[in-house]
Amino acid sequence: MSTLTGANVTLRPPKEGDIDSRFRLGNDIEIIEMFGISRNDVPTISQASAAAWVQGIVEHPHAWIIEARESLVGEIRLDRLDMHDRRASMAIGIYDRNALGKGLGSEAIAVLLGHAFGPLRLHRIGVRVLSYNQRAVRAYLKCGFVEEGREREAAFVNGAWHDDVMMSLLEHEFAR
């Protein structure tokens, strides 16, 4: 797997020390809640679950650790690649509270999109995001994604139903 580099972030394969780094970040309830997990269901991270998280990235052909200032801050990946239709879905997670609100997620998305629409020659990238995750919605919009629709009341989080927002970006839109 190749390393992808931006001005402030590096998307790289796992390396020695990532298990300990992921373990130290823990599972911040407010961050994990943005992924659709209710506050009472957020698991405590263990060395074993941190190791499994790193192993999942190792085994995924299109997943990277997001590193900023030589520290692991999250992950990003392309899922469900369909080379016939030249499409994939994308997922990103920033686990370091200190990395939020600094544009690192948007930059990681842009770096990955350059790879997806460049060397991988994809035509379409789709994302799904919970409607209450406004930080993620803003990041996707900043990177050029367009809202396509909503799946109403698709996720039950913290005792309430929430919509999933479906967004996409096409290669000619990214080229602009």
Helix content: 25-40%
Counting structural domains, the number is 1
CATH homology superfamily: Gcn5-related N-acetyltransferase (GNAT)
If you average the pLDDT, what whole number results? 95
Structural class: alpha+beta
Distance between the termini: 27 Å
Number of strands: 8
Q: Describe the biggest sheet?
A: 8 strands, mixed
Global geometry:
globular
Flag low-confidence runs.
none
CATH class: Alpha Beta
The CATH architecture comes to: 3-Layer(aba) Sandwich
Number of helices: 6
CATH overall fold name: Aminopeptidase
Strand order of the largest sheet: 1-2-3-4-5-6-8-7
Rg calc: 16 Å
Query: What portion of the residues fall into strands of 2 or more residues?
Result: 35-45%
GO molecular function: acyltransferase activity, transferring groups other than amino-acyl groups
Pfam family, one: Acetyltransf_3
Protein name: Acetyltransferase, ribosomal protein N-acetylase
Keywords: Ribonucleoprotein, Ribosomal protein, Transferase
Describe the structure in your own words.
- This protein is α+β, with helices and mostly antiparallel strands and 176 residues long.
- The chain has a single domain, classed as Gcn5-related N-acetyltransferase (GNAT) (Aminopeptidase), CATH 3.40.630.30.
- Helix content is 31%, strand content 35%.
- α1 packs across α3.
- It is globular.
- The protein starts with a strand and ends with a helix.
In short:
This protein is an alpha+beta fold and 176 residues long. The chain contains six helices and eight strands. Strands 1-2-3-4-5-6-8-7 form an eight-stranded mixed sheet, with helices on both faces.
